Amino acid sequence: QVELVESGGGLVQAGGSLRLSCAASGRTFSSYSMGWFRQAPGKEREFVARIRWSDGSTRYGDSVKGRFTISRDNAKNTVYLQMNSLKPEDAAVYYCGAAPTSRISIYVASYDYWGQGTQVTVSS
Predict the structure, then answer these.
(1) pLDDT tens track for 22-51
(2) Residue 66 contacts by C-beta under 8 Å, 6 or more apart in sequence?
(3) Residue ranges of the alpha helices (H) in 12-120?
(4) Cα 72–39–84 angle (5° rounding)?
(5) CB within 8 A of 35, min separation 6: which ones?
(6) Is the dihedral of CA 102, 106, 112, 118 positive or negative?
(7) What is the three-class DSSP state of 13?
(8) Are 111 and 4 in contact (CB under 8 A)?
(9) CA angle, residues 16, 90, 25, in degrees to nearest 5
């Protein structure tokens, strides 16, 4: 049974930092991309970043480029999202997902598996 478990969310002041983790288990993810998405109340789920297990290549959404960094630890089967210079508009529930690398990773529909989400709140 595939399981993605996010952690690391919380309350932070604007300008601060948080690091989210996504622990993956239940199958081999070598042919998958791991993505982070976020969803604020009343809005659609938005692509944040993704990394490929195979070669570590990354891609970012325009709103987080230069502030967020996605990385992976193959030995721990864990993906991280380092979030710096946080803004109030970054507040959302952040979700980790897994999509085959053959699919376009910026689309929600590409993802086969999702975690339960972790809340990020940014105070101004």
Answers:
(1) 999 999 999 999 999 999 999 999 999 999
(2) none
(3) none
(4) 50
(5) 47, 48, 49, 50, 51, 96, 97, 98, 99, 105, 111
(6) positive
(7) strand
(8) no
(9) 90
Residue with tokens 């601060």: 16
Torsion-angle region of residue 10: left (phi > 0), alpha (psi -120 to 50) or beta?
A: left
| Residue 74 per-residue DSSP state | G
Please state the φ and ψ torsions of residue 42, each to the nearest 5 degrees: 80, 5
| Residue 37 near residue 46, CB atoms below 8 Å | yes
What pLDDT sits at residue 21? Answer: 98
Residue 112, sorted as left (phi over 0), alpha (psi -120 to 50) or beta, turns out to be: alpha
Burial of 65 (0-12, 13-18, 19+ CB in 10 A): exposed
Contact 5, 28 (CB under 8 A): no
